[in-house]
Amino acid sequence: MMYQRCIALTLVAFSLSGCSYFGRLHTVGEEPPLTAIENPVTQPGYKPVSMPMPIPEPASFNSNSLWRSGARAFFKDQRAARVGDILTVLVEITDKAEFDNALTRDRDARESASYTEIAGYKRWLEHVLPKDANIDQLVDIQSSGEANGDGSIEREEKITTKVAAVVTQVLPNGNMVIEGRQEVRVNFEKRDLIVAGVVRPEDITSDNTIPIAKIAEARVSYGGEGRLTDVQQPRYGQQILDILLPF
């Protein structure tokens, strides 16, 4: 019976880990393979972006003018403007947050009342109440409360790099959807950087770059896989137990 349970748990572990588990076993002792360059639109899970659009405005042209509206060069604008064009994203994220909260509350209250005569019912109360009861100190209430709270949060993250992105879609108002991916392999460790979002043509500089702060709906993913990442991650069995165990 115990042998069957062990087999069942092993099968559950393999089924939860999926095909990636066998894929990693296939590359034991080898460097992490780099993915092939493919069209982002054809990747599984890709969905065209649909966002609120302003009311279309008729285009206006200046007669007898060689200058094109929105152009930064006299002959040709070198900035990305069409599907398939490439621009450079300047990823510079410096995220630092500190919170320190303290709360102290103290309260003390006391109420007392004594009665010498209660509408002629003092003797009647003496017979009703226990012998040790003191009618002169009929009410005496005391209360006190104290609460102390202290909380502190400190976080700091910093990423500085550059990545080239491809324009995958041009929205009706002229904004462009971009997506870029960069893979770097050093020995047995691979680092992935993914950047995606919506940019305005006006925010692209003359050298065809755009900072990450001017990308709307920005998605930045920085991670990797390899020998060091395997050591930093807990084992599959431990991850399964952390999910299943209620205590």
Write the layout of secondary structure elements.
Blueprint: H1 2-17, H2 19-26, E1 86-113, H3 122-128, E2 139-170, E3 176-186, E4 189-199, E5 209-211, E6 216-226, H4 227-232, H5 236-244
Parallel strand pairs: 1-5
Antiparallel strand pairs: 1-2, 2-3, 3-4, 4-6
Task: Explain the overall architecture.
This protein has 5 helices and 6 strands, in the order ααβαβββββαα. Among the domains are: 1-30; 98-153, no CATH class. The model has no long low-confidence stretch (mean pLDDT 76). By secondary structure, it is of the alpha+beta class. A 6-stranded mixed sheet has the order 5-1-2-3-4-6. It has helices at 2-17, 19-26, 122-128, 227-232, 236-244; strands spanning 86-113, 139-170, 176-186, 189-199, 209-211, 216-226. Helix content is 19%, strand content 39%.
Helix content: 10-25%
Residue stretches low in confidence (pLDDT < 50, at least 5 long) are: none
Strand numbers in spatial order across the main sheet: 5-1-2-3-4-6
- Major pleated sheet: 6 strands, mixed
Average predicted confidence as pLDDT: 76
Order of SSEs: HHEHEEEEEHH
Counting DSSP E segments of at least 2 residues, the number of strands comes to 6
SSE-based structural type: alpha+beta
Radius of gyration, in angstroms, nearest whole number: 35 Å
Dominant shape: elongated
Number of helices: 5
Could you tell me how far the N terminus lies from the C terminus, measured between alpha carbons in angstroms? Answer: 26 Å
Relative strand content? 35-45%
